[in-house]
Amino acid sequence: MKVLVVGGGGREHAICWKISKSSKVSKIYCAPGNAGIAEVAECVNIKAMEFDKLAAFAKDNQIDLTVVGMDDPLVGGIVDVFEAEGLRVFGPRKNAAILEGSKAFSKDLMKKYHIPTAAYETFTSPEEAKKYLETSKYPIVLKADGLALGKGVLICETKEDAMAGVNELMLDKKFGSAGNTIVVEEFMTGREVSVLSFVDGNTIKIMSSAQDHKRAKDGDQGLNTGGMGNFSPSPFYTDEVDAFCKKYVYQATVDAMKAEGRPFKGVIFFGLMLTPEGPKVLEYNARFGDPEAQVVLPRMKNDIIDVFEACIDGTLDQIDLQFEDNACVCVVLASDGYPLAYEKGFEITGMENFKDKDGYYLFHAGSKFDENGKIVTNGGRVLGVTATGKTLKEARANAYEATEWVNFDNKYMRHDIGKAIDEV
Length: 424
Hints:
By secondary structure, this protein is of the alpha+beta class.
């Protein structure tokens, strides 16, 4: 088979790497890809939102399967464009990707189908939102309705913070049109857990749990980011939590989307909060998480092509999804200053230290080749240093050891990824 992956970050590198392990695949392309992805796939200079160019490339190169990694093209309808051209593609159609594309839609869906989530109200008028906030309990959460690179969530400790947040999202348009509508949500306490799943429209198969670290600085301080590190599995995702979510969250979501005439095929990412009242859904994503994919895919035993095809064909019930009995930790090496201003173009050295090292992976998030053919930094999140181990503590020690193997100017990371496991 010839496979095309759409995207160019750490998640897409993990997907390309996993596809490269399939005996069914002879050639992988990635559009636009990055310098790390170039090791396992041929990078194609087409942007993720150039649907017609991507579809033409898939036809011209007789691509057997296209896998869409990113949220923007999914929400924009790339799957519909490919299907209209008779091309085989993995991911939800536009009317199903709205599960991530609109927080207001997903909250309304959960309310309608009694899927546990935080209490909320939706606003299209900044004046109405502010009126509501006058009598709200604090802290409170403001969410931009649309896509905001995983950063459109503001946790407001005071009324003043919340009023400023409404201005930021709705008037200053910090995230553009994503803030035309906002969701104001009760603040939930508890541990966050990420659970990825494969879905074929009817059947859902749960992948191993993971836990993200969103804030830029140690101790969960600083600004929200796309994710500074991850570990899998989460020791807080117990059998009891799993049983509850299987009964009230996972299949309920798949059935709700089907009932709404929006059958979902692809990956649903459940962001869960383990509250004192039980698990509740924080958010849905309509694709692999980043860096969740980097810790879950190295632990997956199955040939991923089999799973992709089962999701497309509606035969996921025939797949026995299996994961290694081990653990995996990813520490993101970022450019100092991320998620605000940061410099790019610094040479990355030491990557050869990961060659032929079993259980160690270097997933590129923001890298490119410069005019001299050297690999340089090209983003806020640069690399995902990932390692497995028999236990989470061992995997964590291995990952942090491996962060010393690779270097670039302005290298920055959190030093407490997975620290919560010490409490277990």
